[in-house]
Every structure is written in C-alpha cells, then in structure tokens.
Amino acid sequence: MEEKKLAFIGAGNMSRSLISGLIQAGYPAHLIMATNPSISKLEKLAADFGIHISQDNGQALEWAQAVVLAVKPQMMASMLADLQAQGAKLDNTLLISIAAGINVARLQEMTGQTRIIRTMPNTPSLLGLGMTGLYARPNISQGDRDYAEHMMQAVGKTLWVDEEDGINHIIAAAGSAPAYFFLFMEAMAAHAIQSGFSEQDARLLVQQTALGAANMVVANPDTGLGELRAQVTSKGGTTAQAIAHFQEQGLEHLVANAMTAAVTRARELETQL
Ligand SMILES: NC(=O)C1=CN([C@@H]2O[C@H](COP(=O)(O)OP(=O)(O)OC[C@H]3O[C@@H](n4cnc5c(N)ncnc54)[C@H](OP(=O)(O)O)[C@@H]3O)[C@@H](O)[C@H]2O)C=CC1
Ligand SMILES: O=C(O)[C@@H]1CCC=N1
C-alpha cells in the first residue's frame, strides 16, 4: 500500500488498535504519529511501537498527509474548532473519521473541507482481525479511497457502503459487536464459575470455544450458520435443550432489538453533534 505520513488525533482504545495492527502489518513506525492531550497514552504508544507522538494536534496536521480523526464523537467539534483557531490548515490533508454518529456533511461543516472518508472499524483491528465499514461521497478520488481501504485492510477486512446510513448499520453489526460477544462470553464464564470452575478454567472453556466456533465459520464458507449449529445439536440431546431455551426466551428478537437500538443511537448522535 502507499505509505503516507499518517497521524491519529486522539490516542485512545481505537487508535491503539489501529496503530498496533498497522505496525504488525509492516507500516513503518516513522510514518505514524499520534496526538493526545494527556501524555501517558502517548508515551506507551511510543514505547510499544516507536511512533512519533505529540500533545499538539496542529503538529499532526502540519506533518501528516492523512489524518485519522479518532476522538470521542462529543469532542470532535471542539477539537476541530480549536485546531482552526490555532490557524491549522485542514485543506491539504485526507481526513479519515472513525467516529460514530458524525456524518460527512457535519464533518465538512466542522472542517471546512470535503476530502473526508468516513469509516467504522472495530477493536479486533489490534490483532489484524478488524472489520471496517467505509463510506465516501462521489467527490473523493480513487487514490484516497484506495488509501483508506488499504489502511483498514492492513488491520482486517473491509466493506464499502453506498449509502451513508449503511455506516450506522455497520456500527450495529461490527463496530459495537465485539462487545456483544464479550457480554455473551462473560455470561457463560460466570455460569461456569458458579458451576465450580475456577475463573481461569472458566475463561479457558469460553475463549477456546468462541475461538473454535469463529474459526469453524471462517473455515466453512459454504456451510450456513444454521447448519453449523445443527451439526452440534443432536436430536433429543443437550444442545437442543439449551437452544430451545434461548429461542423460547426470544434470543433472535432480543438481538434484533439490541442492534436496532445501536442504529437508533447512531442516528440520534448524527442529529445532536
Ligand atoms: N472503541 C471502539 O470499539 C470503537 C470506537 N470508534 C470511534 O473511535 C473514536 C474514539 O473512540 P475510543 O478510542 O473508544 O475512545 P477513547 O476515549 O479511548 O479515545 C479518545 C481519545 O481522544 C483523546 N482526546 C480527547 N480530547 C482530545 C483532543 N482535543 N485532541 C486530541 N485527542 C483528544 C482522549 O484523551 P484523554 O483520555 O487523555 O482525555 C482519548 O485518548 C470515537 O469517535 C468512537 O466513536 C469506532 C469504532 C469502534
Ligand atoms: O460505543 C460506541 O459508540 C463506539 C462506536 C462503535 C464501538 N464503540
């Protein structure tokens, strides 16, 4: 991939995941910078990955050819207003936003420029196992689209959406979704602990099973998810009892409602920020 000077404004959880994934994929550390108001996260990034760090966002803009906007959505407007008040020039830089709930039109207002790509990654990018949605308006050049796509492909898989609202559905299905699986695993581990396993053994049982199940899905692309489930579910057996319980309690409905709630919140943020 083209190796531009790439800066991350906001050095939190998601930036760390992306930076770690990029470095593992061979992106040169000397071409990456992160900025953040407090120093501790920056020092850790510099120590772990050897990247440039700064507490001055303006420096990121002066230095980089592409900038990832990685502050919390609620901080985006004030961060960008401060930058412009300092006299920072945003117009020569490719801006890649990872923020939930801020649409391109709003980002254009906040930055006064249009060279913006909106993305929605997730934290498994840390391990090169991310899933990122991307959206760009027609004005964005193929070169900029390719750069953002290759950057996210360095840390996992990518999917473009044609309509911007698709990003809100990617949030529900991928951006937020690692947390759903963690919640499920927490519940399973808690029950295993109640059944007498140590915390460590409960975690081993749950994590190895989750890993195995995910790998079964990946290794069998032509087998439906329902079929993989059926292969575990012996007639009159134990799994059937557990699955019947999930379904009687409306698991599918619960999941659909939870994902709809995430989309609704993303759309709500788009009207508020
Ligand atoms: N976490 C996730 O799974 C995902 C997050 N996202 C998006 O990524 C973005 C970041 O989320 P996440 O990493 O979780 O959040 P974090 O809170 O972990 O990171 C945000 C970082 O921004 C820093 N910050 C605050 N104000 C400024 C400023 N003015 N200039 C520069 N940096 C600043 C914070 O510094 P300090 O803590 O020192 O105040 C913090 O380190 C959000 O917009 C979110 O929607 C997208 C997909 C997945
Ligand atoms: O919870 C959030 O709002 C962010 C966006 C997707 C994951 N974390």
UniProtKB/TrEMBL annotation:
It is found in: Cytoplasm. The keyword Transmembrane does not apply. Residues 164-269 form the Pyrroline-5-carboxylate reductase dimerisation domain. Its EC number is 1.5.1.2. Pathway: Amino-acid biosynthesis; L-proline biosynthesis; L-proline from L-glutamate 5-semialdehyde: step 1/1. GO terms for molecular function: pyrroline-5-carboxylate reductase activity. PROSITE patterns: P5CR. The keyword NADP applies. It catalyses: L-proline + NADP(+) = (S)-1-pyrroline-5-carboxylate + NADPH + 2 H(+); L-proline + NAD(+) = (S)-1-pyrroline-5-carboxylate + NADH + 2 H(+). InterPro entries: 6-PGluconate_DH-like_C_sf (IPR008927), NAD(P)-bd_dom_sf (IPR036291), P5C_Rdtase_cat_N (IPR028939), P5CR-like_CS (IPR053790), P5CR_dimer (IPR029036), Pyrroline-COOH_reductase (IPR000304). Catalyzes the reduction of 1-pyrroline-5-carboxylate (PCA) to L-proline. Belongs to the pyrroline-5-carboxylate reductase family. This is Pyrroline-5-carboxylate reductase. It comes from Oceanisphaera pacifica. The gene is proC.
